[in-house]
Amino acid sequence: MNGELGRQTGHPRGLRAAPAVLCLLLGATLAGCGDMGRFQTSAPSVIMPKPKPAVAQTPATEREHERILANYGGAYDDPRLEALVSKTVDRLVAASDRPDQGYKVTILNSGAVNAFALPNGQLYVTRGLLALASDTSELSSVLSHEMAHVISKHAAMREDQARQAAIVTRVVTDMSNDPDLTALALAKTKLTMASFSRKQEFEADGIGVGIAARAHFDPYGASRFLSAMERNAALKAGKASLDPRAQDFTSSHPATPERVQNAQTIARQYAAPEGAERDRETYLTAIDNIVFGEDPSEGFVRGRRFLHPKLGFTFQAPDNFTLDNTAQAVIGVREGGSQAMRFDVVRVPAEQSLGDYLNSGWMEGVDKASTEDITINGFPAASVTAKGDQWQFKVYALRFGSDVYRFIFASRQKSTESERNARETVGSFRRLTLEEIQAARPLRIKVITVQPGDTVESLAHRMAGVDHPAERFRVLNGLDAKGQVKVRDRVKIVVD
Description:
The chain is 40% helix and 20% strand. It is built from 17 helices and 17 strands. Helix 6 packs across helix 8, helix 7 packs antiparallel against helix 8 and helix 9 packs antiparallel against helix 17. The longest helix is centred in the middle third of the chain and has 36 residues.
């Protein structure tokens, strides 16, 4: 959760149903990514390399670039990774049918597994995707796939589709008071875009595998990485993130069995299953120590606890709740979906009382008579209840230093349990100790060498801060359910 931006946009209106409660307003610190891979030489006897084709910039692409940075935590600064990605792109460009097309790659500071392209050749890849890939050929399959979208004008077509969808959404939302009609129109729009996307994915796979193969990368990298994505998505099953930053590659690039099979069939046209270049050692060296998962500078979830070392506080969600940290709010959903919560930071003038803020009209259905001034662990606070068509709400505002934090609890039915959950969660809000702040470090990928006696289970036991460690270890290292590690292999584990 980004505190500064949360203050600017923490005013959802009309929290009458679950989608409204869980509506996320995203934003993050903007950061840029410099032009990678440039070099110069002054030796007159050396032939100067041809200058790289420039990436055309327009106000629209600049705005989209900033929006992407805001939604994905800014750019991830790692010169070693940038050099690897840049070198890989250079090889792919030289092998493509459009060597005149310029590309610029930004590594995004997000644990999501995602990659995408803008029509002008700006490519984006998350550090989460880099952590999942096992060698340079798998990375090349992702980059060549995105280059194929640019070469085939898919990115431009998607931009037009998105623009049309936005118009439909706005018109339907503005003109209709019928929620069922609105939902139907939006569902049809999304279905049209999804169908259009699937056709593009198969075409981009064919072009991308060909580019990678001509660049002398293992063309089977695509099918291996698609399989890894499918298994990674399965690990997340039942824990669907509400944050657009956390949507993975499979959301827009479906890794269906048919697509994996198609990628394998295309690869057979270029090489046998073994023998092509994977460049695993170079790749693992480059990703060693990369941040894995959430970046603690924006707060992070550990089980049911949320900690924000930068802002200095923590709280704990009730039993059976899953927390999701997003750009501007922490969202909690109870197993089964009967209860939900939102925690964010809002603008409240110092001279305005918290009770007055809760009754200031930003939320409908508030029972003003229920307003109560309270103290939570020494912090001034206020609470109020509200009622919607399908949901009951309990809302708290709490002043912590110069900031005001807001807890919104929603339940389908008012019950002793829902009231206790809200009360105990708010009651757990406290300052972090200095020791807790100092101990709040990001998880990282560590590349180690398998020693005699090591097994999948023993290595997975060394993993920190991840669920299903044995399954996670297998996915991160491209091992199937029966695969075993070999002595002197280099493998990835997650450490704190």
